[in-house]
Amino acid sequence: MPKRKSLASIEKQIKLTQQRLLKVKTRYEKLGVKLIELNKEKTLRQAEVIAEAMARSGKTMEELMTFLSR
After folding, report:
1. 31-56: per-residue pLDDT in tens?
2. Partner of 34 at 20 to 30 A CA spacing, among 19, 26, 41, 67?
C-alpha cells in the first residue's frame, strides 16, 4: 500500500508552489512590459526610416500618399 502524505507536507508543497507561481507571474508581467516597449521602439524606428526615405526621395507627402493608395 502506498505511503500517505501528511497534511503538513501537502500544505508545505502548496505554499512552495504558490511562491514559485508568484515569481513566474512577476517575471511574465515584466517580460510583457518589455515586449510592449520593444514593439513601440520598433514602430518609432520604422517611422524614422520611412521619413528618411521620403526626405531622400524629394517627394511630397501628397505624392507619397498617392503612391501608397494604389
Report:
1. 999 999 999 999 999 999 999 999 99
2. 19
Looking up cell 512552495, which residue turns up? 16
Q: How many domains does the chain have?
A: 1
How is residue 5 written as a grid cell?
A: 502524505
Is the residue at 35 inside a domain?
Answer: yes
Q: Which amino acid is at 42?
A: K
SS3 at position 39: helix
Q: Which domain holds residue 27?
A: 7-68
Quick one: which H or E segment has residue 29?
A: helix 7-57
* 57 burial level (CB within 10 Å; 0-12, 13-18, 19+): exposed
